[in-house]
Amino acid sequence: MSYQFYKVLHLLGLMLLFFGFGGLLIAAYAKVELKKPARIMGFVTHGIGLLLILVSGFGMAARLGLVSGLPAWVQAKIGIWVLLGIGISLVKRKGYIGWPVAILLWGLGTSAAFIAVNKPF
Distance between CA atoms of 88 and 6, rounded to whole angstroms? Predict the structure, then answer.
């Protein structure tokens, strides 16, 4: 598959990830108890987004010829991916505080984008 295909898949995963975060975060901040199907939808979109990001990220790395040794910027993005994966538990347990959690998640996403575009290290 082409680099462009993996890039589109990566962006789809990013949209799904933040879609899941957003749904659960808004409900927690508004102190609304979501029904089980809605809660499950938030967790599932988060998980599918993470999976798509991981698979497409490694696909793009393979297309760039980075399989033998991952540079530091790829390792940093994997670290951010892990933090975003753990972030769903923060939303579930502390989502009621709202903006600080949202800003933290946006900051992680922005950091990943900055690292991918600029490859600073």
Answer: 24
